[in-house]
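Q: Give me the 3D complex with pyridoxal-5'-phosphate.
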Amino acid sequence: MQIFLDDRMVDESEAMVSVYDHGFLYGDGIYETMRAYDGVVFRIDEHLERLERSASLIRLKTPGRKYIAGAVLQTLQCNHLRDAYIRVTLSRGKGPIGLDPALCRRPTLVVIAEPFHPYPGKLYEDGVFMVISSVIRNHVRAINPMIKSLNFLNNILAKAEAKDRGAYEAIMLNADGHVTEGTVCNIFFVIDDILCTPSVGAGILDGITRDIVINLAGVLGLTVREGLFSPRDIFGASEVFFTNTTAEVMPVSQIDDTVYHVGSITGRLRAVYRDEVEKYVRAKRSNDVL
Ligand code: PLP
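A: Here is the predicted complex, encoded as structure tokens.
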């Protein structure tokens, strides 16, 4: 594959970052994951906006949205990709050993794009198994989960524990015992026909898919409640699903010992999310033609 590195396309075999890069030394940097459908990067503006926000929360100056958008499109084109997984990484850059961000003069920008491999259909039909992790989500005043940070050990430890327990994904609680999110996704559940999801105040990444699903639920006439929830609330739910850019809307069949059916609200939201993607792709296409 061809990789965008700093200011140009290079072959994967030559896409090297220094061992003195503070992204490598300290996990000092941020990233975004995007998905392209038929050559159109879905909600690219929102992803670039969030990248800027993450950057500002770690006091990192970015090359700007326009530049990064250009790098993303160039990476897709160079690799002749239409349905793709895209990863944008921006690290503090190369600098002497030491924590001071001022040691690094220029951030390192990397854009990787790969063919998108759809999740197995069976996962959407049957749902996935999740566990409540013993690993607590980062405290908002430690590493705010709103920062899409390269420092991902919090999530990696929860994921490893989930794997040990035979689960697909983990749900992390915050230090007060409230439900936050999965290691790479946001959580939704249905109680008495009300769509519930942890609020940003619980300490989560405000997912772009989450935001779309909340809006679509409103369009469908569903009541949405964002708030603080305990594991007991989620165990009492009739349906559970998770959301993220790559999986979209994924049903959950079990959390710890509690089993759920793949319900009709999940199915409807999954379908309208797909429609939303198609509408977006069509609109971008017709803009390009005009
Ligand atoms: N929460 C975490 C911790 C994530 O890493 C992600 C995505 O990778 C999400 C939530 C979902 O965000 P989005 O819908 O923007 O992909």
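A quick observation: The chain has a mean pLDDT of 97.
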